[in-house]
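User: You have something folded?
Assistant:
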Amino acid sequence: MKILGIESSCDECSASVVEDGRRILSNIVLSQVDFHRPWYGVVPEIASRKHIEWIRPVVDDALSTAGVEMPAIDAVAVTFRPGLIGSLLVGLSFAKGLAWSLGKPLIGVDHILAHLYAPHLEREISYPYLGLLVSGGHTIIARVTRWDRIEVLGTTIDDACGEAFDKVAKHYQIGFPGGVAIDRLSASGNPRAFHFPKPSLHKGEAFYDVSYSGLKTAVIHQSDQFWDGKSEKSVANLAASFQRAAIDILVDRALAAAEDTGCRRIVAGGGVAANSYLRQRMAAEQGLEVIFPSLKLCTDNAAMVAGLGYHVLEEHGASDFSLNAEARVPMFKRAYP
């Protein structure tokens, strides 16, 4: 079964053809980074307009690369939540029109579940495991028991991890996207030049939650208070110290969840899963199986949408054409979706 996947939840315009939920025949991702770089962040209006311009040629390119004619597609899978509402509507509307014109099933796919499915495209992974979803918009630690069922153990109470990277990078004009720019600059910095604080969250139900608002404020407005007193106050040292603190917050919570739940397998996904320090930290942990997707599957892409869409169609059937886009999904629910 060949599924055409369409992803347009933020600023990547992507289309992919995946066979039987695993075999990637094509995965075309067109980035809008150059259009958003002057603002050090994604401008929703620009994003949705670029999706309108690019969606058809990106789909055509995905089909051509896969060597598949349009009528040979068995279904059309598309991200319908969460994300920028304008961007989501472009992809969803195009997918609806395409599926209807071809007489093929429409499959609505959840972006968060798709990110957690991405590593499954490259290897067999047994359930259950701890899912670590880290991106510009989401930071979630969850127990994953099936491809369509996760129990949220922890999430952010304010900024997402990737959002904090972007805001720090914008303030110090390090570059955009912030996560990539800070990761690159950190390689030449001293990660212990500044000892930034970690949040102290209350225990109990929210024990695995994370917070980045305080860290972001400390880095932007109070860095002198956390300087070691001897290292150079360079942007590279500040970036490396911030990255260490931001990732350590995440890793500490994930390791605590692994210890308490007994899950010794952790599967990561999302744009921040490409961070080199996160990968080094997790690789150094003994007694844990830690699985990361390849770098090309960390960022938003349609292959994860098409791959997950196969399972949605097989078990739950097609989506109704009344399916609408949803900008947000409640992130504090302990059962998701």
Observations:
- Residues 235-261 form the longest helix (27 residues).
